Amino acid sequence: MIELNRNRKTTKQELIYVGAYFLFLLVFWSISRLILSPALEKTLPNTSLSYALCEAILKGVIWIVPVYVILKLQKLNPISFLKLNSNIMKGISFGLLLGIAFLVINIVKTKNFNIHITYSDFINTFLVVGIIEEIAFRGYIMQKFKLYVGFIGSNIITSLMFAMIHIPISINNHNIDPLYFVQVGILSLIFGYFFEETDSLICPIVIHSLWDLSMILTQIS
């Protein structure tokens, strides 16, 4: 009975951490997208390197620092828990295979190729976003939910949360399209599936980054 109560207490604490993190993320990411980014654009050209670096640092502080702090408080090794050092070659191989397939399909489908890439496109959309978002959602949130609801349940819950976190981005871009959120949710399920299959966060990071690169190159919003 004592062990059962201890396990329930641990489960409750874990879910509180995850819920608090997502609430923090939703609030401060909304502030960042809807208030701070527009203010930054009035100070720096949104095509400049300075703007891109400020955006990258801001997102890293909001998304990654809390995950690192939570895992350290739980006496977990962030790199190992997030599976950033697990099955690296397998993760890269599967990630490149599917990511390049997405890239080619989107270019062929749109018959468009954009060569005018800004610093923000390259640094934030291609290099940084995949790493930061996968650490937060697949590496942390999905793995924590998986402990209690299994892979399928955790992938679905994480994908719904992943779609929700894109609401501030959609509002900022003046593009509230339900199909956009459906696409984001489906992509999240794919990222989650290959994370589970490869047991490596490198895989969804590579797929995510190459998908975003295809959005830049084909100018798909």
Automatic annotation (TrEMBL):
<feature type="transmembrane region" description="Helical">
    <location>
        <begin position="148"/>
        <end position="167"/>
    </location>
</feature>
<protein>
    <recommendedName>
        <fullName>CAAX prenyl protease 2/Lysostaphin resistance protein A-like domain-containing protein</fullName>
    </recommendedName>
</protein>
<dbReference type="InterPro" id="IPR003675">
    <property type="entry name" value="Rce1/LyrA-like_dom"/>
</dbReference>
<dbReference type="GO" id="GO:0080120">
    <property type="term" value="P:CAAX-box protein maturation"/>
</dbReference>
<feature type="transmembrane region" description="Helical">
    <location>
        <begin position="92"/>
        <end position="110"/>
    </location>
</feature>
<feature type="transmembrane region" description="Helical">
    <location>
        <begin position="15"/>
        <end position="36"/>
    </location>
</feature>
<feature type="domain" description="CAAX prenyl protease 2/Lysostaphin resistance protein A-like">
    <location>
        <begin position="121"/>
        <end position="213"/>
    </location>
</feature>
<dbReference type="Pfam" id="PF02517">
    <property type="entry name" value="Rce1-like"/>
</dbReference>
<keyword id="KW-1133">Transmembrane helix</keyword>
<keyword id="KW-0472">Membrane</keyword>
<feature type="transmembrane region" description="Helical">
    <location>
        <begin position="48"/>
        <end position="71"/>
    </location>
</feature>
<keyword id="KW-0812">Transmembrane</keyword>
<dbReference type="GO" id="GO:0004175">
    <property type="term" value="F:endopeptidase activity"/>
</dbReference>
<feature type="transmembrane region" description="Helical">
    <location>
        <begin position="179"/>
        <end position="195"/>
    </location>
</feature>
